[in-house]
Amino acid sequence: MLYLRLFKESVVMALGSLIANKLRTSLSLLGITIGIFAIISVFTAVDSLEMNVRDSIETLGNDVIFIEKWPWGAGEGEYKWWDFVKRPKPNIKEMALLQKRTKSAEACAFSVDGNKTIKYKNNNVDNATIHAVSLDYNKIIAFEIIKGRYFTETESTSGKNIVILGAAIANNLFGPSKAVGKNVKMLGRSFNVIGVIKKEGENIFGDSHDTQALIPVNSIRKLLDIHARDLDPVIMVKAKKGISNAQLKDELRGIMRSIRKLKPKAMDNFALNETSIISNGLDNIFEVIGIAGMLIGGFSILVGGFGIANIMFVSVKERTSIIGIQKSLGAKNFFILFQFLFEAIILCLIGGSVGLLLVFILTAVANSTIDMTFSLTYSNILLGVCVSVGIGVISGFAPALMASKMDPVEAIRAN
User: Fold this and answer.
1) Do the strands 234-239 and 105-120 form a parallel or antiparallel pair, or are they unpaired?
2) β-bridge partners, 129
3) Residue 273 or 50, more confident
4) Which residue has the higher pLDDT, 142 or 151?
5) 256 partner at 20 to 30 Å CA-CA among 79, 168, 308, 353?
6) What is the pLDDT of residue 206?
7) How far apart are CA 235 and CA 156, in angstroms?
8) H or E element: which one contains 290?
9) Of 20 and 142, which is predicted with more confidence?
């Protein structure tokens, strides 16, 4: 009951101080508000971006190895592009040989894409991504067909002119009308629409299926050179359950070296990429952004903390005679200490709450304007509250201690 009374009195006094000295208190609380806003907004942005990155990586597959000409990262040294540019590109024949020889893979697929225009009557979609893939692509990369179906083995092998459209392309070409069964024009040929992919929204890598058109790779081979200089084909290999990426990479490295007849001491002339390369690189970036946010917010909170301490020293001086009366009536030192300490904490909580409210508003605005999900998590709210309480304790302790040690007689006579 004592602590409840203490808390109640502190709330009343804190609000009284806020009302009585609106400008002075508001300016002091501004530092806390800005600090909490800076720290929590940065953490919210980093957490939300990280969540979106994880979701995007899941669509690529954590258990998939991408065999390409170019590595995704430099490794421990510099990025030796002058060596990488000389490498041959992966091809369908190599994918077929890998498929026969590997024992650790659940599925292998070949993929190559380029940007072309897709037409239907008077409607055009410019710069659409034409994604030519082999049969097992759907076993490796996650997506959902909501209308129609995927390629059959016969269609994939024969290179039939069929296409599966992304949601954005289907909507732009056909609107609300049915797309499946219609013919679209691209690459100078007519392609029959056999499916539409469920809307995914933008992802962090910008490779959503919404703006892609999937066609069998054998159908595009009739129309253009898939190993042309401006195209970058890739072989995708998904690991079997129980097989680690490291085990799969070791096997693939051996098979690829054998296919390309590399000598024992020769360097690999291909890259074995995996999504962990991206996530590890982004983790470092997020860490730097988080530290920068903490430094900026920490400086603002430090300034706000000095402001709160100043308010509390002034409050102690203004209420010196009241402190003396309380002590003469039997109030203990700890009662006076906690009274002023709670007041400082409540003032900081008010400033922190305003900062959290601004972060909430910012996330709501971002969600309505950007095609990406931002969320203020409970852990970040708790962090904001804890930082506010911590600053209140630190900035209010010295004034509270000074008030608790006052001599009651001297305090009563002070004013």
Assistant:
1) antiparallel
2) 115, 212
3) 273
4) 151
5) 79
6) 59
7) 16
8) helix 275-318
9) 142
Residue 237 vs residues 74, 104, 252, 410: alpha-carbon distances, Å: 22, 9, 9, 83
Cβ atoms 116, 125 nearer than 8 A: no
Is the CB of residue 63 less than 8 Å from the CB of residue 239? yes
SS3 108: strand
Q: What is the predicted pLDDT for the residue at 223? A: 72
* CA 48/CA 203 separation, integer angstroms: 12
Residue with tokens 């998939």: 64
Q: Determine what percent of the chain falls in helix, strand and coil, rounding each to the nearest 5.
A: 55, 15, 25
Residue 8 near residue 270, CB atoms below 8 Å: no
Q: Which residues pair with 212 in a beta bridge?
A: 129
Say how far apart CA 274 and CA 65 lie, in whole Å: 5
Rounded CA separation 226/187 (Å): 13
Q: Within a 10 A sphere around the Cβ of 100, how many other Cβ atoms? A: 9
Residue with tokens 């983790």: 283
Query: Please, what is the average pLDDT of the chain?
Result: 83
Nearest to 184 by CA among 256, 109, 123, 237: 123
Question: What is the domain partition of the chain in residue ranges?
Answer: 2-56+280-413, 88-269
What is the tens place of the pLDDT at every residue in 157-175?
888 899 999 999 999 998 8
7 vs 89: CA distance, rounded Å? 71
Which residues does 242 contact at the CB level (< 8 Å), separation at least 6?
none
Place of tokens 């998590």: 377
Residue type at 39 in one-letter notation:
I
Find out whether 251 and 272 touch, Cβ atoms under 8 Å. no
- Six-digit token pair at 370? 């950007």
Positive or negative torsion for Cα 269, 275, 279, 282: positive
Residue 299 burial (CB count, 10 A): 14
Q: Is residue 50 pLDDT above 80, yes or no?
A: no
Half-sphere exposure of 315 (CA within 13 A, CB side): 30
Q: Which residues on adjacent β-strands are paired with residue 113?
A: 131
Looking at the predicted structure, is the pLDDT value of residue 42 above 80?
yes
CA distances (Å), origin 255, targets 102, 120, 252, 259, 338: 8, 44, 5, 6, 72
Per-position DSSP letters for 388-403, written without gaps between them: HHHHHHHHHHHHHHHH
